[in-house]
Amino acid sequence: MTRNTTTSAPLSASGHARATLVLGLPLIGSHLAQFLLHVTDTIMLGWYGVLPLAAGVLGASSFFVVFIFGSGFAKAVMPMVAQAQSQRDDRQVRRVARMGLWLSILFGLCTYPLFWWSGDILLLLGQKPEVAALGQEYLRVAGLGMIPALLVMVLKSYLAALGRTQVVLWVTVAAVPMNAAVNWMLIFGNWGAPELGVQGSAIATLLAQGLSLLVLCIYAAMLPSLRHFHLFQRFWRPDWPGFRAVFRLGWPMGLTGLAESGLFQASALMMGWIGTNELAAHGIALEITALTFMVHVGLSNAVTVRTGRAYGAGDATGLRTGAWVAVVLSLGFALLTMVLFLAVPAPMVRLFLDMSDPQAQAIIATGVTLLACAALFQLADATQVMALGLLAGVQDTRVPMVLASVSYWIIGIPASYLLAFPLGFGAVGLWLGLVIGLACAAASLMWRFWTRAPKA
What does the domain layout of the chain look like in residue ranges? Predict the structure, then answer.
């Protein structure tokens, strides 16, 4: 990496913090709003019934696992566009973003059969027949949203790398009330609509994804300051070198995300072996912890963009200073989250339940215990996602994929199983295994970044 030859003064730590927050806060808001779509689905399905809630949680988490794998190409777009922009290479910006869109479309087409036959897959994975049947109803509709969801992700990465984070925020925020209204109408059969239960929830999410894609496409194509990139001009023409470049960087990022989300999905499947109430409590606790995790994801995205720019500009000093400042910001929020989970867990769990349901109290008790376990892994979870964002910024993805996969699957999953079943800790044991896997990932990935990051 060459030294930065620009004449601008280097940023102080406070300057790096401000720059990270200016870029990161709209991304945090966008991730929070995006996740509120899933929280809305979970809350309303919880009001509808415990069985639909369990099936919806299982279906949504299954969709998310596939989505995370496919979103590796969208994640690759962010550092590549940031680097190209720092080098003022408009053609490379267009090539990277366009081929990210191509790869996302191809991935969505190839994976839909998994959703169509998801009932048989869930049965093979040990789920109860009634949960598997409802889960398939959800996924056959939700699976249609894979392509628009991935295309939205690519456009968000493209726009964020170009500093257009405000539109990413407001488009996602606007989708939340629309999703809630359609949920209310189709899950329960209000306003003269048919009562569709879990299918209604999937339809609402699909409509929100489609609307978000339409707005972002119009914005990316029509905004005067972005027109010179000609993102959609002759979109049908292949660019095989660009295709291969995005694929090479993106597939390890997708597999890394799959390894992490698969850790939580495997815990959901094992929780289903314990019982429906435990699975419902697990889903609620995951929704709460994932909502706070979106703050770290937004900061990680911001640090990917800023690291990618510094990497492209040859600014090793700025890269390393910005990295540790972002890590400190993320860890500070993690400490606040730990206090929240330990201080007021029960009111948060109650939000997801109909308190007239006779099983509600048992679910609350389990959920409170799981949130106490979640407090333990806040620091590790924050650290590992920040490390992945930093490594993506310097386009180091293959070794991190191996480190993450070993941490989650060779260490985390066996630890969860051992603690839950042979050692008899049940639901708590499953979550303690998550803590172990995340801690190993955090330590190994941070070691990788600081030993490989360019030095001034």
Answer: 13-452
